[in-house]
Every structure is written in C-alpha cells, then in structure tokens.
Amino acid sequence: MNKAVNGILTKVIVSIFLVIILLIIGLNIMASRGFHSLEIVTPEHFNSLSLLVAIVVIALLLLFRKQVLVFFQKISNYYVVAALLIISVLLQLLVVWKLNVTPSWDFGTIVRNAKILVDGNPLENYFVIYPNNILLVCILAFIGKLATPDLLTFQLVNILIITSSQYLIFRIATKIAGRHIGVMSLLFSVFFFPFIFFAPVVYTDTVSLIFLLFPLNMLINKEGKLNATVIRIVIASIIFSLGMILKGSLIIFVIAFSIILFMFLQRWKKLYFILPFIILVIVKLAFNFAIYESGIIDKKQVDRYSFPVTHWIFMAQNEQRFGKYATEDFRYTHALLETYSRERVTQIHLKQLKKRITEKGIEGNIKFNLEKLTHTWTDPTYYSLNKIKRQPIHPENFSRLIDYKSGKLLQGFGRVQHIILIFGLLLSVLLARKNEFVMFAMLSIIGFFFFLLIWETRSRYLVSLTPLMIILSCLGYAWGDRIRLWGKKE
Length: 490
What we know:
It comes from Metabacillus niabensis. The chain is mostly helical. It has helices at residues 2-30, 46-63, 65-74, 78-98, 105-118, 126-129, 134-146, 151-177, 179-190, 193-197, 204-207, 209-219, 230-246, 251-264, 275-294, 299-305, 310-315, 327-339, 342-377, 384-389, 395-401, 404-427, 436-454, 466-477. The protein has 24 helices and no strands. Mean pLDDT is 92; it is low at 486-490.
C-alpha cells in the first residue's frame, strides 16, 4: 500500500516537474532577459548565437559524458575542493573591491538599521510596513556587535555565507552521488553568475542559502539517504522556519520537507509530516514575541500599518510591470492603510485583484503569465547586475564591465551557463531512482514556479532555489553513471 501510494505521488510530481521544465526550456530558447534587467536592448543575434553555443556545449557534455565523469573522478580530492573554494573567495573579493556599491533600496535600509540596533535604538518606520526584513537586521546587528557594524564586515560575512553554501553543495552532492559529482557541483557553483556578483549585496537572496543547505546536509546521511530522527526533523524544521521568516518564499521548503516525510517515512512515522508546520507556527510566534518585547518595533504599529499579504498578490497582476515591483501599487496600498483597516485593505486588494484578472481575459492572462515567467526564468544574471548598477562606488568599473564587447561576453557566459543548468534539470527526469533529495528538489522547483506566478516576482528570487537546481542538474548530466541513484556501487 505504502509503495503504491508513493509510486503514484512520484509519478504525479515528476510529470508536473517535466511539464514545467519543458516550458522553462522553451522560454529560454525564445528569449533572454539579461540585458533587459539592465534596461539595455538585447543586441541583434545575441539570443541565437548564445543559444547555439549552449547547444554545442550540451552536445559535447552528452557526447563525452563518460570522459567528463572520469575526469572528475581523477580530480576528486580535497586539494581541488580547497582550491575551488579559494578561487570562489577571490572572485567575490574582486567583485567587492572593483564593483562595490553604496547601499541603497532595501539593502541600504537594512545596513543602516543594523547600525541603529547596535546603538540600542528602535528600528525605522520601514519595518512597520515590511516586518519580514527584521530577522536579517537582527542577524547583521548581532554580527555588528561581535565585530563592527560597517558595510565591509557585512560583505565579508556575505562572502562567508556564499562560500559555505558552495561547500555544502559539494557535501550534499557527494553524499548523494559520490565525490566526483560533488566536485562537479562545486565547480559549477564557484563560477555561478549570482554567487559571484551578489557578493557586495548583503540581502536575503544570499543569506537565505544557508537556511536551506545546513538542514539539508544534516538530514542526508553518508549513504545519501534521509536520516529523519525526531531530533533532526525538529532542528531542520526550526532552521527552515527561520528561513521562511527571513524570506517568505522559503515556505516552499517547509512544505516540500513535509511531503518528503510523508512519502518516505514508514507506517505511523508518516505522522511526522505535521511537525514542520507545528514548529513553523511556534518559531514564528516566538520570534514575534521576542521582537515586540525587545521594543525594537511597536506591535500596534505593525498590526495597523504592515502590508497585508494580498498586496504582493495584487501587485503580481500588474499588467504594465508583468508582476514585478510596482511603485504605483506600493503607493496605492500605503494610501489605503492611512485610511482603512488592514482587514478592509485586504478586501479592496481582492476586489482589485479580481478586476485585474478579469480585464485581461483568458488570452490576455495567458500572454501575461508567459511574459511574467520569461522575466523570472530567463534572466541569467538573476538581477545581480541590476543591483550592483545602483550607486556604484566605482562607476567606471561597472561601465567597463557592461560595455559593448565585455557586456556581450558576460551576458553570453551567463546565458550559456543558465541554459546548461536548465537542460540538466530535464535530464534529471531520467534518474531511475527518485530518492528523497531528488523529490525534495523537484517539489521545491515546482513550488517556486507556482509561487512566483501568484506572487510578485523577480529573477533574483530564484537565488534561494539555485543550490537545488545545481545539484539536480549535475545529477542529470551524470545520468547513466555508476552512482548510488542507480542502485550500483561507485
């Protein structure tokens, strides 16, 4: 009975995953939004030429797959791992040195308020509207008290988080499929576009990585299987829950974890699937209690003026912005909260949401959502260049980076890398044994796909998901190798 149910669930999940990946591949063949994220017109023939290069590279990887795997087996030692991690740190330090920015947008507010907290003062009014960013400020303030609350300290911590995440990618992939696949995953992650260019930007996109990878590494044993003791489930659920508080989209990982527990645990232990949700509620309540009792923010003000979740769902249907951040929608919600209660604002949002969907019609909604998906899933820069474009300390360096020639090469590198990554996800469908990690990764990708259709979107929101994409893609390219996922010895 248990095997039959799991078999059905697996087929359903893999089928949905396959349809989604085919759609994403189709969108990436037709378009690329890398230049668009910088408000630059995509050069003529860029998409076709970069696509051709990606196809050639993929064809070579498939044609010489055995030789590639043998190569990684030969270099799979900890000297190579250490060298790659050192290269990663150097690349990130180089970006911070040459392409550093003066903190602006939400990033600037968070850095400024971390210093405010260190000085023992309450947070600015921004956090009444967006209390979801309080955890990040608290983390940076804690670091600021241990060291100094300046930008460079926070950026060095950001580099530490990204590099630690890359090492955990290596560890998880090694446990699942052997050290050679671990090194392959690490190599990809070291030169992964957003892991390099987000180094100067200390925000939830990169900080959230550790809240996914640390519990995953703890849950997967040396044989690559789920080690779901009660204590590990509880600890993992606490960390996943903190991740959700840090960045709301990480609720997907909590849901995926719960489904995995239901699918892979035996008999009465399947009831453990409810634990992640119970712990999520407890952690959320405890966190809210702590911040309100500390006096860093006024609970009454938050209850009155914080934006309801319907704001982001309503904004997600903005036709002119294709579901991305819209200043006019921010001002609209802000003005409504000055006049009406949050409950009334929620009702107004839902009414306007229905109006926006209805006005577009069936054909209009299809076109709108395809365009929204294109902006989300076809930007190989993951919006990183847009963020380091804002108030650069050395604008001449950024200009040289994106000028006529180097800009094309950089975008081309990103697009080829991105297409290779997505195609590897398609190959992962061929994996004969869909173990706990594979199903968790597929569920998470499915979850992010639908979440970012419903919610306000940006390509950078995918950064939290990319470690799973990297590992799963590398497993896809290793299809047919004698590794654990095929039930054979290494």
